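Incident review: delayed structure delivery

Summary: a single-chain prediction request sat in the queue longer than the usual turnaround. Root cause was a stuck worker, restarted by the on-call engineer. No data loss occurred. The affected request and its eventual output are reproduced below so the record is complete for anyone auditing the incident later.

Affected input:
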Amino acid sequence: MSERKFVYFIGDGRGHIKIGISTNPEARLLSLQTASPSRLQLLHTVLGTDEDERYLHSVFDDERVAGEWFKASRNLIDFINYAALEHPSVCVEDLVVERWEFEIDEMMVAGFLYDQREWSDAVQTGS
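Output delivered after worker restart:
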């Protein structure tokens, strides 16, 4: 049986967020901290897979700074806040499927593509 994995979001306090995967995000934070001049903070974790991590990297690719580090854009911060406040213990796929209010051009989950027009109509009508 494989260990549960978590997709984690670690902030550096300087406008960057790392999206990674680990079986122990707290230990991963400590290992990253030893190589960072900034104080790092574990912002949130969600149950996930390696595929979920890669998917989130692709979703936020426009905000990528280097490797697994991304600009702390409004979209990324909104996603983390939504995950932490609205759905603290769900998996990445459920978060992406349920989160209509975030402004990401294309979101593909399990082969289903929400196009921008449907998203806009749903937000405007409140459905």
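Verification: The chain has five helices and seven strands.
Action items: add queue-age alerting; document worker restart procedure.
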